[in-house]
């Protein structure tokens, strides 16, 4: 076995690079597809988790960022900019370091997880908290990239989705074929669009016999695609997907309709329950937004939109360590003991 080289080298012939392209990478991708015993039991489906929190900066964004920064470097960019609910900024900041670029980041003030803020700062990004939501940040980032010498690396940059489609290739390569259903959270709607591109490409080339039905899930307080209208003041505890006017709205609807899938909403309460269940019963610690895929699957099985016996992959998009507050919120404070075995044993319930 040879070492994993990152998504651009691994899938070079399927990506918009040439032999001369010098790739900016942190060896992202190659993430595990973990059988989910408990979720399978609960749903009667055969469920796998694509654990994207194991990417270099802890989310799926690295797949797109290696492509976007590689192409920005090829085009001679010295600086990049993004709007973010946290993960895109963490990823952009890290890959900008690799490329020797400066990175500017716009985040909604007070609405991003501490770990993500820490990542952008430790990688030296120039970070502004904007007095507005993610949609306002994206509008501002777009304007700045038009009027100033700075390249936009949000998923409206087409190279981002090209990189992110490699996750679908990995799923098919691991399973030997596409699953019947793929579930994932939807925020700015780039990832569901990218997966669908990847699955369709493999199916068209005969690398898989089928393409899955794509199921996307928004939080009910931030569900513009489900509602059919932008949400001016999106609300959800899952800050990563607190987005009221997704940039890839049209592509996401295409993915849904071409695949025979569905975009639905799940309540924050169900997201939180799925988050706790994944940690406590699967041993997989994800961030809140990521749990929307599993919360959505549970709901879709309940409502009959996904049948028992279906082979399902759920993408869990980000690492739980990015936002430990929600893990601590559900836990009782640890007991303090002296350095004494009988006392510790009794406190642990071993006697
Ligand atoms: N899950 C996580 C952990 C995310 O960070 C995001 C998006 C999504 C799901 C939704 O993916 O936007 O492609 O539909 N985060 C972006 C950011 C918006 O700025 O980090 P999407």
Structural overview:
The longest helix has 15 residues, at 190-204. The strands form two sheets. The protein has a six-stranded mixed beta sheet, with helices on both faces. A four-stranded parallel beta sheet has the order 5-4-3-6, sandwiched between helices. The protein has 351 residues and is an alpha/beta fold. The protein has helices at residues 7-10, 37-43, 61-74, 87-99, 114-122, 134-147, 158-164, 166-175, 190-204, 224-227, 249-259, 268-282, 292-302, 325-329, 341-347; strands at residues 33-35, 46-51, 79-83, 102-108, 126-130, 151-152, 181-185, 213-219, 262-266, 311-316. It starts with 6 loop residues before the first helix and ends with a helix. It contains 15 helices and ten strands. Helix 9 (190-204) crosses helix 11 (249-259). Bound molecules: ligand F0G.
Q: In the CATH classification, which architecture of the largest domain applies?
A: 3-Layer(aba) Sandwich
Kindly provide the name of the CATH class of the largest domain: Alpha Beta
**In what order do the strands lie side by side in the largest sheet?**
1-2-10-7-8-9
Residue share in helix? 40-55%
Rough outline: globular
Average predicted confidence as pLDDT: 97
Poorly predicted runs of 5 or more residues = none
Q: What ligands does this structure carry?
A: ligand F0G
Q: What is the percentage of strand-forming residues?
A: 5-15%
Count of domains? 2
- Taking the alpha carbons of the first and last residues, their distance comes to 47 Å
Radius of gyration: 20 Å
Main sheet attributes: strand count, strand direction, barrel closure: 6 strands, mixed
Structural class: alpha/beta
What is the helix tally?
15
Strand tally is 10
The H-and-E topology, N to C, reads as HEHEHEHEHEHEHHEHEHHEHHEHH
What fold name goes in the CATH topology slot of the largest domain?
Answer: Rossmann fold
